[in-house]
Amino acid sequence: PPMLLVKDVIKQYGRLRVLNGLTAEFRTGAINVVLGPSGCGKTTLFNIISGLEPMDYVALFWDDKLVLEAGQPSRLETGDIGYVLQGYSMFTHLTVLENLMLAPRLVRNISKAEAEAYALSILDRFNLVDKRNAYPTTLSGGQQQRAVIARAIMMNPKLLILDEPTNALDPKLISTLEQTLLQLVADGLTLIVSTHHLGFAMRLADYSYFLYRGELLEWSRKADLLLNPTNPIVQDYIQQDAHLHEIPRPPRTAHGDGDEGSRP
Questions:
Q1: DSSP labels, 216-241
Q2: pLDDT for position 88
Q3: Which residues of the chain have pLDDT under 50?
Q4: Does residue 209 contact residue 34 with C-beta atoms inside 8 Å?
Q5: 84 has which bridge partners?
Q6: What is the per-residue pLDDT for 253?
Q7: Domain locations along the chain
Q8: Which of 12, 157, 171, 232 is deepest in the core (most CB within 10 A)?
Q9: Which helix (H) or strand (E) holds 42?
Q10: Are 129 and 123 in contact (CB under 8 A)?
């Protein structure tokens, strides 16, 4: 069954409707890849799911339980959703280790020793222990990104959202990112990831979703909508992308059930 059902979400800025009754089911224990042109509503959708932005209307179901609706406080537990925004934002006046320790200490009120021990174990997983006392601005782009993802999982989220994590990464760093995300899913995390890099989507997606003008146009298992799109808008978008045929997609097993199709 789906873990997260976003139902009939509407978001409007003045006369501009950014999300237009969008409904999507994101699957548990899987990499859910969200595609679409700039301005299609991906970031706004992520901001609403994570609670950063109010919505005009939405019904958000988590494992069949209503957890968020317009005008009501969220019923999600603090830390259930981790969110890595574009731009690798970290507190530049804090070391990498201090950045990771901050949320668990403030929100969960755990001791400094416990937070530090857990942060070091997370940094070890991301090959960043030797950078624990470094400041974010001294890290390379790839190290900064790994540090931001490490910080996001310090609260043990059930769901991790990543907005355009492939932006400004060279092919080697994209490959490293892919291995990181595959390991997170193997550890039981559910991911929702947006990208403009269709080669990345082909290699990683357990499920793919194509947004256009605030609506879900098409979705599929794996990256099938990239290989056999049924919607003309999706077809045009794919034909304009140069990344698609860079590297063949390795065989992977999709999690969950459901048949692909156009907008429900």
A1: EEEEEETTHHHHS--SHHHHHHHHT-
A2: 66
A3: 245, 247-251, 253-258, 263-264
A4: yes
A5: 162
A6: 47
A7: 2-80+157-262
A8: 157
A9: helix 42-49
A10: yes
Q: Please state, in angstroms and rounded to a whole number, the distance separating the CA atoms of residues 54 and 71.
A: 9
Q: For the whole model, what pTM was predicted?
A: 0.88
| Predicted pLDDT at 243 | 54
Element of type H or E holding 70: none
Q: Cα separation of 197 and 167, whole Å?
A: 8
Using DSSP's 3-state secondary structure scheme, residue 48 falls into helix
Token pair listed for 74: 């969220």
How high is the pLDDT of residue 65? 86
**If you write DSSP's letter for every residue of 118-173 in order, what string do you get?**
HHHHHHHHTT-GGGTTS-GGGS-HHHHHHHHHHHHGGG--SEEEEESTTTT--HHH
Question: Which residues on adjacent β-strands are paired with residue 7?
Answer: 59
Question: According to the model, what pLDDT value does residue 130 have?
Answer: 97
Half-sphere CA count of 48, side-chain side, radius 13 A: 29
List of E strands, the chain = 2-13, 16-27, 31-35, 57-62, 65-69, 81-84, 159-163, 190-194, 207-212, 215-221, 261-262
Question: Scanning the structure block, which residue is given the tokens 């950063």?
Answer: 52
Residue 114: both structure tokens together? 């416990």
Say if CB 211 and CB 22 are below 8 A apart.
yes
Name residues whose C-beta falls within 8 Å of residue 230's C-beta, 6 or more positions apart in sequence: 218, 262
> For residue 80, what are the contacts with CB-CB under 8 A and spacing of at least 6?
62, 157, 158, 159
Residue 163 CB neighbour total at 10 angstroms: 21
Q: Write down the CATH number for the domain with range 2-80+157-262.
A: 3.40.50.300
